[in-house]
Specification:
about 170 residues, elongated, 2 domains, Aspartate Aminotransferase, domain 1
Length: about 170
């Protein structure tokens, strides 16, 4: 079960708590220094990999890999769905929004539930709007965590799932 607050909020909350408690009780810290001034192990490790150039190398490697994943994912979507879908947000990032021309917004939650049962995480975009702006079903797809070799199979599995959903919704 997920936590009630995003991780970023929990981290800020932990920092505020740490700052308050450290001023009241911290036998290991110098009283003249703020807890924020004390570099943690993680900060020192990050500083080290930045200084050595390892971080920049990692970022370059991940950019190349994610660009390859994006290209494979978009090609697989084009082959599997053709003009049945509209894809937005393809120029950068780790996610795209795909609108399905043959599914309605009312099919979103059902498709997402079926996909979850198959181990695929897709996220309906209707949850992000106060009022529906498009009658078609739309989903956020992420591709960055998948190995390149499995992206095509994942898209084809999604196609089969959508075809079965379209057949069920016509009954």
């Amino acid at each position: 079960m997920s936590a009630p607050y995003p991780r970023r909020c929990r981290q800020r909350s932990a920092l505020v708590t740490w700052c308050c408690l450290a001023r009241l009780w911290s036998p290991l810290s110098d009283a003249s220094r703020s807890p924020i001034d004390i570099a943690s192990f993680e900060q020192e490790a990050l500083a080290s990999i930045i200084k050595t150039g390892a971080y920049e190398s990692h970022v370059r490697k991940m950019r190349r890999l994610n660009a390859e994943r994006r290209a494979v994912f978009l090609n697989a979507l084009a082959e599997a769905f053709g003009d049945e879908v509209d894809i937005v947000g393809t120029s950068a990032g780790l996610h795209v929004v795909v609108s399905f021309n043959h599914l309605t917004g009312s099919d979103e939650e059902r498709f997402a539930a079926c996909a979850r049962q198959e181990g695929v995480g897709v996220y309906p975009i209707s949850r992000l709007y106060a009022a529906p702006t498009d009658r078609r079903a739309g989903f956020i797809f992420g591709y960055a965590s998948m190995p390149v070799e499995q992206i095509g199979k994942g898209v084809n599995d999604g196609r089969k799932l959508i075809k079965s959903l379209v057949v069920l919704s016509r009954r």
